[in-house]
Automatic annotation (TrEMBL):
<keyword id="KW-0808">Transferase</keyword>
<dbReference type="GO" id="GO:0008168">
    <property type="term" value="F:methyltransferase activity"/>
</dbReference>
<dbReference type="InterPro" id="IPR029063">
    <property type="entry name" value="SAM-dependent_MTases_sf"/>
</dbReference>
<keyword id="KW-0489">Methyltransferase</keyword>
<protein>
    <submittedName>
        <fullName>Putative O-methyltransferase OMT</fullName>
    </submittedName>
</protein>
<dbReference type="InterPro" id="IPR007213">
    <property type="entry name" value="Ppm1/Ppm2/Tcmp"/>
</dbReference>
<dbReference type="GO" id="GO:0032259">
    <property type="term" value="P:methylation"/>
</dbReference>
<dbReference type="Pfam" id="PF04072">
    <property type="entry name" value="LCM"/>
</dbReference>
Length: 271
């Protein structure tokens, strides 16, 4: 496959190359936390100055493993459920889960802005189970396309922190109302990191991350179960154990200041 220029992605859309850099770099390691052949293919095919994102780390690989596990759990009991990947970027979760045999009867709805969807069409294989919707996750007309007769698992991996708080809460509220019995999973950054991005957070001397207005602790995310109608329960999902500091991290969660200052993953269950 000939090289594809990735410089057409800008702003928040370009962050999918940041997460791809981390995930594919992990997948290339013999001791990597994730096995992701399609991430490696994308990384090797898209021509881009990945080093401006700084040294790769395990964070996005571990996040992807956590999302896969929750999706796999839901699909095991809802084998015909719809999976909705909001702002999917260059995630390759579909192929990882399909390799595990849990997507045989499911329909996968891939949602992102047109430039990202165009890259996906050019670089990833076609599959009749995938419905591609080139639009913003906040344009909730996508909900009309989703057949949730047999349940729905909605992912917002690396999305909500880039939204303003009202927009993020509104999206969750809409999902809870439209997909009863479904689940929604998202990750959050802590407030201190959100404030840092608003001032301009540099990954290197050549790259400043887009602002991330929504910051919340794990416990604040759990509190959504009492704030949003239709959300029956919320669960804090632990990051899997990795190497080095990423191995010790889960064991320190009982320390209040660390719990409040760490990123989190939350799984919501809808009534």
């Amino acid at each position: 496959m000939s090289a594809i220029d990735g410089n057409g992605l800008e702003g928040v859309s370009a962050t999918t190359l940041w997460t791809l850099h981390n995930r594919a770099s992990e997948a290339k390691r013999s001791d990597g936390v994730i096995r992701d052949p399609w991430a490696v293919t994308l990384f090797d095919t898209i021509s881009y100055d990945y080093l401006k994102f700084g040294k790769p780390n395990q964070s996005h690989g571990l996040r992807a493993v956590a999302f896969d596990a929750a999706a796999r759990d839901y699909l095991t009991t809802h084998p015909k459920a719809a999976v909705v990947a909001l702002a999917e970027g260059l995630q390759t979760s579909f192929w990882r889960l399909d390799r595990e045999g849990v997507l045989g009867e499911s329909r996968w709805y891939s949602i992102d802005l047109p430039p990202v969807m165009e890259l996906r069409r050019r670089l990833l294989p076609r599959d009749d189970r995938i419905v591609e919707l080139a639009q913003s996750a906040l344009d909730t007309s996508w909900m009309d396309r989703v057949d949730s007769t047999h349940g729905a698992f909605i992912t917002a991996e690396g999305l909500l922190m880039y939204l303003d708080p009202d927009g993020a809460i509104g999206l969750i509220r809409e999902c809870a109302a439209r997909f009863p019995g479904g689940r929604m999973m998202f990750d959050s950054i802590p407030r201190w990191f959100s404030r840092r991005t608003l001032k301009g957070f540099k990954l290197s001397d050549r790259y400043v991350t887009p602002p991330m207005p929504l910051g919340q602790s794990a416990d604040e995310a759990l509190g959504l179960a009492g704030r949003i109608p239709g959300v029956a329960a919320a669960r804090d999902v632990a990051y899997p154990s990795g190497r080095g500091l990423f191995k010790a991290w889960p064991g320190l969660d009982h320390v209040g200041p660390i719990r409040r200052a760490r990123p989190s993953i939350t799984l919501l269950e809808f009534r």
